[in-house]
Amino acid sequence: MVVLSNQSALNELFLAKTCNPSTVFTAVPEVDLSHPDAKTMMVKACQEIGLFKVVNHGIPPEVITRLENEALKFFMQSQSQKDKAGPPDPFGYGSKRIGTNGDMGWVEYLLLSTNPDIVSPKSVELFEQNPEALRLCVEEYIGAVKKMCCFVLEEMGEGLGLGNVFSRMVREERSDSCFRVNRYPACVELEESGRNLIGFGEHTDPQILSVLRSNNTSGLQICLPDGTWASIPPDPSSFFVNVGDLFQVMTNGRFKSVKHRVLADSRMSRLSMIYFGGPSLEEKIGPLPSLVSKEEQNIYRELTWREYKNAAYKSRLSDHRITLFHKS
Ligand code: GA4
Questions:
Q1: Residues spanned by the domain of 71
Q2: Position 162 in a domain
Q3: Per the database record, which ranges form the Fe2OG dioxygenase domain (predicted)?
Q4: Which residue of the set 270, 301, 306, 321 is catalytic?
Q5: pLDDT tens digits for 78-108?
Q6: Residue nearest (by alpha carbon) to ligand 1 atom 12
Q7: Which atom of ligand 1 is nearest the CA belonging to 100?
Q8: I want to staple 261 with a disulfide (CB 3.0 to 4.6 A). Which of 42, 177, 202, 275 is the partner?
């Protein structure tokens, strides 16, 4: 038995037994955004897995590195300094606690809203307490990743014969998207324990589409249809794109909102940045009629994003929130 010296009692909370060594998922579809078949490939990946990675994405590496460096500078500050921008309301700086319903993980993070209607005192605090460079780099990165997310949605809309239905939702000014930077500290105590440390517990993303970029540290896993977990090898020069619950609903289940989680690494800390593309709070979300064939039925009912989001934020991370959309 390995003795955990580092906050041992708290650490125990996050230890999950490894039943089987997790497999490495080597078949992540890679989509070159400049390829003429990109849309077809993305639609196929969303139907089969709910995740793919994009290359030739057009986001300058400097935009990524600049934010990564500023974020690391933020996280390297003293705990008391970081805590000035927390606890999250739900936006701002958070450490170990995820959401407000008792979920915990081996992670510290910054969570920010891109919705101009949401004023978060903790985010205001964050940008007042830190160099302007942090805010500028966040804005620059969000601008670039939003553009890419909308392009991907546009392509997929075309791939489904629907035009800009999805991209419009995220592109509009009042789109209720959010952005998070997660840092999963390395946990050396894990080395020979044969156990895993949950960085961010299993969940599906509530929004339409999530766009993730991480450093070269592994940790991301997806749940395969047979219920086993598979690790996604990191690729710092690509972006990983995954389907969120709203996309699954709008496609009447054709696209899969893939369950995923993150495990901490024993040697290297992982830094990831995720843009969650969502619609405006008033947008009504339900299966799109042209995607439901005559032989099929609507699996889901209609809800506004506001209704779904409010319910989602009251749930636990691992809850199967999408059932709220199920027709009774
Ligand atoms: C999961 C996806 C995004 O990270 C997030 C998370 C949010 C949070 O961290 O506050 C939630 C989680 C996420 C879903 C259920 C609720 C809300 C934590 C939690 C327990 C920002 C989001 O939109 O939903």
A1: 37-325
A2: yes
A3: 174-279
A4: 270
A5: 999 999 999 999 999 999 999 999 999 999 9
A6: 317
A7: 20
A8: 202
Instruction: Name the residue among 77, 68, 270 with its Cα closest to residue 185.
Output: 270
DSSP 3-state of 117: coil
Q: In whole angstroms, what is the distance from residue 78 CA to residue 136 CA?
A: 22
Assembly ipTM: 0.99
Binned at pLDDT 50, 70 and 90, residue 17 comes out as low
How are strands ordered across the β-sheet holding 229-231? 15-17, 195-203, 260-263, 220-223, 229-231, 23-24
Number of domains in the chain: 1
Is residue 98 a part of any domain in this protein?
A: yes
7 in any annotated domain: no
Interval between CA 34 and ligand 1 midpoint (Å): 32
Residue 220 lies in a domain: yes
From 259, 313, 323, mutation site for ligand 1 pocket: most ligand atoms within 8 A of C-beta: 313
Token pair 């991301």 in the structure block, residue: 220
Q: Give 317 Cα–ligand 1 centroid separation in angstroms.
A: 7
**At residue 129, does pLDDT exceed 90?**
yes
Residue 313 Cα to ligand 1 midpoint, Å, equals 7
Active site residue 195: no
Give phi and psi for 229, each to the nearest 5. -100, 140
Task: Tell me the pTM.
Answer: 0.96
**Among protein residues, the one whose CA lies closest to atom 10 of ligand 1:** 99
Instruction: Give 201-213 pLDDT, tens digit per residue.
Output: 999 999 999 999 9
pLDDT at position 16 over 90: no
Measured by CA distance, the residue closest to atom 9 of ligand 1 is 99
Each residue's pLDDT tens digit, 30-82? 999 999 999 999 999 999 999 999 999 999 999 999 999 999 999 999 999 99
What 3-state class would DSSP assign to 151? helix
Q: What CATH number is given to the structural domain containing 161? A: 2.60.120.330
